[in-house]
Amino acid sequence: MLLLMIQVRVLAFGVLKDSLGAGPLRVELPEGAAVADLLAGLRESYPTAMLRGIAVSVNAVYATATHVLRDGDEVGLLPPVSGGHATRMLDPLDQSGEEPKSNTALTREPIDADKLVAASKHGKDGAVVVFDGIVRDNSRGRRTLHLDYEAYEEMALKQMNELAAQARERYGIRQVTIIHRLGRLLVGETSVLIVVASAHRAQAFDACRWLIDTLKKSVPIWKKETFVDGAVWADGEPFPEGMGIEATDAH
Hints:
It contains five helices and 14 strands. The chain is an alpha+beta fold. The protein folds into two domains: 5-78, Beta-grasp domain (Ubiquitin-like (UB roll)), CATH 3.10.20.30; 102-233, Aldehyde Oxidoreductase, domain 3 (Alpha-Beta Complex). The strands form three sheets. Strands 2-1-5-3-4 form a five-stranded mixed beta sheet, with helices on one face. Strands 8, 9, 11, 13 and 14 form a five-stranded antiparallel beta sheet that branches. Helix 4 packs antiparallel against helix 5 (201-218). The radius of gyration is 20 Å and the shape is globular. It starts with a strand and ends in an 18-residue tail after the last strand.
């Protein structure tokens, strides 16, 4: 009987690019193959690749080990996240003249924190809470020269939009801004800015803390740190339960 084959496009990110390469891989699999089958094959072809504890996406959506692949699927191999083109930031007012409930973006331009914080304020608000993540000059006792951030951009922006919507529903806040910088950043520059506007301070504080903690675990953005004596991909936090592919799941 003729064995039917499918072909998937595999994208590696973060530290996995060191072993799998920066360009996309074209992988052929038998029809009906699942994510676990793909990972098993990659382990044979690339024995040095660190494929344990990663997450996998299919067409920019997190997938399980049992997810059945189809011809033409785009598969992302996502190492734990550290905590193209720029995506346009929203204007303070949308075309209807109303303030947007969320403002999420990836950008390679410097983030103007003061302007974004000012744009988030409204007469309905009693509090605006800000997390401004900046590049520090050292890490683990080593002097930092610069950081390089990369993302699975389509998926990252989708995840950021979902986080903003979840925060509004979960904490009853009015507006959320999440802006993350990509590319090379120097010491003192803003890497991620989160602004939460709310009628009450308690909800704003809680939402802002939840947003940055969750973003660092689930949004596919990676950080490479360059020191005076070398460079390394930053260790990411483990994926939330149910998101990562366990070794037992992947054969």
